[in-house]
C-alpha cells in the first residue's frame, strides 16, 4: 500500500512542492488547488477500495490525515457494514 506522499505525488501537477510541505501543513494553504484535492480523494478511494464518507472527505486536509486514512481505512473491506 502506498503512503500519503506517494498518493499526493500521483495527484498533483508539481509533486516537487511536497518537499516543502510538513505532514501537518494544510494542503490547500500549501498550494494545492481544488482540482488536485479532488484527485487526491479519488486516488485515496481507489487505494482503499471504497468510497469515502463526507466526514472522511472533509478530513483530507494534511499529509498526516491522508496517512491516517490509508492506515485505518485500507484493508477494512470485511468490516464495511450496511450500505449507504
CATH topology: Non-ribosomal Peptide Synthetase Peptidyl Carrier Protein, Chain A
Helix amount: 40-55%
Indicate the radius of gyration in whole angstroms. 13 Å
- Which structural class do you get from the secondary structure elements? mainly alpha
Q: How far apart are the first and last residues' alpha carbons, in Å?
A: 26 Å
The DSSP helix count reads 4
CATH architecture: Orthogonal Bundle
Say which CATH homologous superfamily is assigned.
Answer: ACP-like
Kindly estimate the percentage of residues that lie in beta strands according to DSSP: under 5%
Could you state the oligomeric state of the chains shown? single chain
Task: List low-confidence stretches.
Answer: 76-84
> Mean pLDDT across all residues, rounded?
89
Instruction: Sketch the topology as an H/E string, one letter per element.
Output: HHHH
So what's the CATH class? Mainly Alpha
Number of strands: 0
Question: What coarse outline follows from CA principal-axis ratios?
Answer: globular
Largest sheet composition: none
Amino acid at each position: 500500500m502506498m503512503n500519503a506522499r506517494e498518493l499526493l505525488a500521483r495527484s498533483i501537477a508539481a509533486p516537487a512542492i511536497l518537499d516543502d510541505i510538513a505532514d501537518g501543513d494544510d494542503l490547500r494553504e500549501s498550494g494545492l488547488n481544488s482540482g488536485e484535492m479532488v484527485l487526491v480523494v479519488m486516488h485515496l478511494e481507489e487505494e482503499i477500495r471504497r468510497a469515502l464518507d463526507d466526514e472522511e472527505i472533509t478530513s483530507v486536509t494534511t499529509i498526516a490525515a491522508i496517512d491516517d486514512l490509508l492506515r485505518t481505512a485500507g484493508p477494512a473491506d470485511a468490516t464495511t457494514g450496511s450500505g449507504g
